[in-house]
Write a structure and sequence with these properties.
Order of helices and strands: HHEHE
Oligomer: single chain
Distance between the termini: 17 Å
Number of domains: 1
Number of strands: 2
Helix content: 25-40%
Shape: flat
């Protein structure tokens, strides 16, 4: 990942040509990735549904029961 992100333009090739919506989606993804700061530290995830920020089945279950849609990654984020 590091070698790809450090080169300009990005050192990526695709088997098929990106066109239309796929090209726009690719550009959107690249714009979002430009703000990501990589480090050598281990990843750490925090769970927003508990006070101690650790995942529990109970917290997930309660959120699923109390919501009208399937939960997304809004409850988890990467700590830098």
């Amino acid at each position: 990942v590091e070698s790809v992100c450090q080169s300009t333009p990005l050192n990526i090739s695709f088997r098929r040509a990106l066109a239309g919506n796929r090209w726009e989606a690719w550009l959107h993804l690249v714009r979002r990735l430009m703000d990501v700061q990589l480090s050598q530290r281990p990843d750490q995830l925090c769970w927003k549904l508990t006070r101690n920020r650790e995942f529990t089945v109970k917290s997930m279950y309660l959120d699923v029961i109390n919501s009208s849609s399937i939960p997304t990654s809004k409850h988890v984020w990467h700590v830098k």
